[in-house]
Design a protein that fits this description.
The complex is a heterodimer of chains A (124) and B (826). By secondary structure, chain A is an all-alpha fold. Chain A contains five helices and no strands. The N and C termini of chain A lie close together (9 Å). Among the domains of chain B are: 38 residues; 127 residues. Chain B contains 24 helices and 31 strands. In chain B, the strands form seven sheets. Chain B has an eleven-stranded mixed sheet with strand order 3-31-4-5-9-10-11-12-20-21-23. In chain B, strands 6, 7, 24, 27, 28, 29 and 30 form a seven-stranded antiparallel sheet that branches. Chain B is globular, with a radius of gyration of 28 Å. Classes of the chains: A mainly alpha (124), B alpha+beta (826). Chains A and B meet through helix 3, helix 4 and helix 5 of A and helix 1 and helix 2 of B.
């Protein structure tokens, strides 16, 4: 039985690792946008966690990354483009909803990728 | 390993990734690939530019001969300083691509008939139309000609092309322009041919209306019979104030175009009765009838400074990104500033340190249809001058997204491409085999005209520059620091006999062929006229004593020209500010004449209470199409409604849409003949309606519409007109809608719903040139940039920017200069 501290430590560590690696592969525009699915999957194979924790670390890692990036970009752009896109997509011009959906996509895919990885090796 | 959960989870992950990586159908269009599009490191977020972005840059380009300095001013206008001409055009290409890549690519795709390739089978009818009209063929002719005969233009276009491609080469996928991400495709390498295709598109936009008008006029004539047709579509314009003042003597013509014997019956169908038509499929949008412009120059005798002022405002479809991109180009050979076309080198409308120039559309008819007789369905031979002549086959392959290629086999004839045949028809072509003959399909060194205008020093240079111009025919206005003003209508114009080419012509022998191209020195021109100004506003350039036929009167709007000339005639001590006010003037000279004509027939005792209230709104109106006026809305709706009452019945029975007659036809009849027979409603058998009855009926019908508008609060002019500047894809979120601006048809400020002054320029030719200008858009084509639509509000408000046109040292020191882009060869 592991201590709850080490479980949380691992969760936070993999969360940060997910975000960092996703950001790093994201810098290469020639790699597909979904490269973080692969990196999250690999992280979850290496760092064994319970499925629920693996999901959370991957989901929060990518979710926070996409939330943070879109928030910073949108703020520096004063919502010019996000408002337009939120009118092209059926979001009534709400940049907040657009950021929420961006975050949700990162959260879901990131989580699912890590969850899949966690099933490769059994957690002890 | 836990196999089942792994499988389940992997399937969901892969499934979701796949779905988010796909374009999903929404209605008739497709969504972007959502995961990609929303990814902050790949998708649209990357196009959200910092509002306080720094545009300083240092760019290494090995194709350059020397270093080039570009300074961007506070409006993001680049000022290019290069050591040689080719480097300047390389950098112009690079900057066009950097700020307008998607637009350049899109516009040339339209011209090349390649929309289906990115948008799918939906756009096939547009692509087929342009392919069959010969747009690609025309661009190929020009490219081959320039490559063989014109090394300077070849080098210019090649340098421009290399600049565009240098930008493309360093463009990483995540930095693709927004629209590529939205529609999910990628740019391709630029080629000189694309530049020529873009110029073909301008030819089409400005002379291609005949491609639909000739068919419509033929069908309208066939439906109404020649006599009624000639009444409703008369070429007589009593109130014409031509570009070349009435009474000017013209030289003896070198060509005397003769109408072929028998043409009254065989071609004009003067005795033909009505025939009927059946409708089939779609045609693409014809060029806007209002594609036109104003330009004028006043001589020093009429200005406060004693120096000429030149003004030019081309009226075109209003789009984002704009057709125009401002630029200054300075090299040891010349220094010029103005509006350029993303897609082409050089400045198109602008000025240099000696003179200024501008253009308006000539509107002359340079596109005709000839009816063919093929021997059989293989279309390998056609009857011409008493023999079966062979055609050659031109194959055009249209790639279609998610679908098989479509192949167009076009029979090429003496006249040109057989545009309409058994395989291609539209409702107006009615099963005919029609070849198109169009000056736009001939090789042209049009870009050289601008190249030379950019460098012109005096009147002679101007004349020699424009002498190269072929299609689309333009009125080139000119003014120099030395005090000369001039205007010349220049192009490759057909020496026509009366009404030649208004309708489809017989194509079985050469008797209906063009009898020559009018020599340049017989094209209308005036220099330094006594009245102290020259002007054009798309009206007929000459009075009826000119020895050649210009084309059908509907191509020549009457009223803006009258307004411009009247105002300029009365003005003295003119300043640049006065000229700005004139360019944005909203006075309605048509209503000035038409309102009293209406009132002559309106009988107040016959009107309902609502109708008389509306009529009084119209009579108390000040005749200005200003933003908040209601009188103009009432006037317009009443007038349109009276037109419909008068000739709607004559046109209503046709199964295919017919051309509406011009407003001046009704106005002239109202002033001349209260018993005009067309007023009778032919659907009532036992009664003959008078013009008076039709006018009052029109007022009552209009009142119903007006009451509705009043309820919706849409009576004030700008609300009713709802001017917009649309993104090229017409996506509303990327467009500017419901702009607060007056103006309209027949108004100097020719701003209609989606069309209007696309670049306003006022140049005062003082020692240090004082120039003003703007276009309804912004220098950046990126919807995520604050520079995307920067000028739109200012433009709507009728304001102007002072244009910075300075030598390098002065520009660098100017407080409006913000950024520096260095181009180096390493």
């Amino acid at each position: 039985m592991k201590t709850s501290f080490s479980i949380y430590f691992k969760l936070v560590l993999t969360l940060i690792l997910s975000a960092l690696l996703a950001y790093a592969v994201g810098l290469y525009g020639n790699l597909p946008w979904w490269s973080f699915v692969v990196t999250n999957f690999i992280i979850a194979i290496i760092f064994i966690q319970k499925p629920v924790n693996a999901f959370l670390s991957g989901a929060l890692g990518i979710g926070f990354l996409w939330l943070g990036l879109s928030l910073v970009i949108d703020n520096q752009n004063q919502h010019l483009l996000s408002t337009k896109v939120a009118n092209i997509l059926p979001l009534n011009g709400s940049y907040a909803k657009l950021i929420a959906i961006t975050t949700l996509i990162g959260f879901l895919l990131g989580g699912l990728a890590s969850l899949s990885g966690s099933f490769i090796r059994k957690s002890k | 390993m836990r196999l089942l959960p792994l499988l389940a989870s992997a399937i969901v992950t892969i499934g979701l990734t796949t779905v988010l990586n796909m374009q999903l159908p929404i209605g008739s269009t497709k969504s972007p690939r959502l995961g990609y599009f929303l990814s902050p490191q790949h998708g649209f977020w990357k196009n959200a530019e910092k509002v306080n972005a720094n545009f300083d840059a240092s760019i290494v380009a090995n194709d350059l001969k020397g270093n080039v300095d570009v300074y961007m001013d506070d409006r993001l206008v680049p000022h290019i300083y290069a050591d040689n001409d080719e480097d300047a055009y390389f950098v112009q290409g690079y900057l066009h691509a950097k700020y307008r890549l998607w637009q350049m690519d899109f516009q040339t795709r339209v011209a090349a008939g390649r929309l289906s390739e990115i948008a799918g089978a939906d756009k096939l009818s547009i692509d087929r139309f342009f392919r069959r009209l010969g747009m690609v063929y025309g661009a190929e002719q020009t490219e081959a000609y320039i490559n063989e005969h014109n090394p300077v233009m070849k080098a210019t276009v090649d340098a421009y092309t290399a600049g565009v491609n240098a930008f493309l080469k360093q463009l990483s996928p995540e930095d693709l322009p927004f629209e590529y991400k939205l529609m999910n495709y990628a740019p391709e390498e630029w080629t000189p041919k694309k530049t020529y295709l873009f110029l073909m598109f301008m030819s089409y936009d400005l002379t291609g209306r005949s491609a639909s008008a000739d068919l419509q006029l033929t069908n309208t004539r066939d439906y109404l019979g020649y006599d009624l047709f000639n009444t409703l579509y008369t070429n007589q314009q009593d109130s014409l104030d031509p570009i070349i003042p009435k009474g000017t003597l013209f030289a003896q013509p070198s060509i005397t175009p003769m109408q072929p014997i028998g043409a009254d019956i065989a071609y004009l169908k003067k005795q033909d009765s009505s025939t009927n038509a059946s409708a089939v499929n779609n045609t693409p949008e014809a060029p806007d009838k209002n594609n036109g412009s104003n330009n004028w120059a006043v001589s020093g005798s009429k200005t406060k400074s004693g120096r000429p002022i030149l003004c030019s405002d081309p009226h075109l479809g209003l789009n984002l990104p704009s057709l125009w991109y401002e630029v200054q180009i300075t090299t040891p050979t010349h220094s010029t500033y103005g509006a350029s076309f993303p897609g082409s080198p050089a400045v198109i409308i602008g000025f240099n340190d000696s003179l200024a120039w501008g253009v308006t559309n000539a509107g002359r008819d340079v596109l005709d249809y000839y009816e063919l007789k093929f021997k059989d369905s293989t279309q390998k031979e056609y009857w011409f001058n008493g023999n079966w002549q062979p055609t050659t086959n031109r194959q055009e392959v249209i790639k279609v997204k998610d679908s098989a290629d479509v192949i167009e086999n076009i029979a090429m004839t003496h006249w040109g491409p057989a545009m309409f045949d058994a395989h291609y028809q539209n409702p107006q072509s009615k099963g005919r085999n029609l070849a198109v003959k169009w000056t736009g399909l001939n090789a042209s060194t049009g870009v050289e005209t601008f190249y030379k205008l950019n460098r012109a020093k005096n009147f002679d240079d101007y004349l020699s520059a424009i002498s190269l111009w072929k299609c689309p025919g333009q009125n080139f206005v000119f003014a120099s620091k030395t005090g000369d003003i001039a205007i010349k209508q220049q192009g490759s114009f057909v020496a026509r006999w009366d009404r030649q080419g208004d309708f489809i012509m017989p194509g079985q022998d050469s008797s209906y062929d063009w009898q020559g191209i009018i020599p340049n020195d017989e094209n209308p021109m005036i220099k330094n006229p006594e009245r102290g100004f020259v002007s054009s506003a798309n009206q007929k350039s000459v009075d009826p004593t000119y020895p050649y036929y210009l084309g059908t009167a509907s191509s020549f709007p009457l009223y803006r020209g009258i307004s411009v000339n009247k105002r300029l005639g009365n003005m003295n001590q003119i300043t640049a500010k006065d000229m700005q006010l004139l360019q944005t003037d909203n006075y309605n000279v048509f209503a000035e004449a038409a309102r009293p004509a209406l009132m002559k027939f309106i009988d107040p005792t016959l009107l309902s209470a609502d109708a008389s209230r509306m009529v009084s709104l119209m009579t108390s109106w000040n005749l200005y199409n200003n933003e908040n006026e209601k009188g103009i809305t009432v006037f317009k709706i009443i007038w349109d409604s009276v037109e419909t009452s008068v000739w709607g019945d004559e046109l209503a029975g046709s199964p295919i849409p017919l051309t509406s007659p011009e407003s001046y036809v009704l106005l002239d009849q109202m002033n001349k003949d209260s018993n005009w027979s067309v007023a009778d409603d032919i659907t009532t058998k036992n009664k003959i309606e008078t013009l008076k009855e039709q006018v009052n009926l029109g007022v009552e019908k209009a009142t119903k519409i007006l009451l509705e508008l009043e309820k919706e609060n849409k009576l004030s002019w700008s609300t009713f007109k709802a001017t917009r500047v649309s993104h090229l894809t017409k996506i509303p979120a990327l467009s500017r809608l419901n702009l607060p601006i007056g103006g309209g048809e027949n108004i100097i400020n020719a701003t209609t719903e989606a069309h209007g002054p696309s670049w306003r320029m006022v140049v005062h030719l003082t020692d240090e040139i004082e120039a003003y200008g703007l276009y309804p858009g912004g220098q950046s084509g990126n919807p995520g940039s604050p520079y995307y639509d920067t000028f739109v509000n200012y433009w709507a408000a009728g304001k102007y920017y002072r244009l910075l046109f300075l030598p390098k040292e002065k520009l660098v020191a100017n407080e409006r200069t913000k950024w520096h882009i260095q181009f180096k060869t390493i």
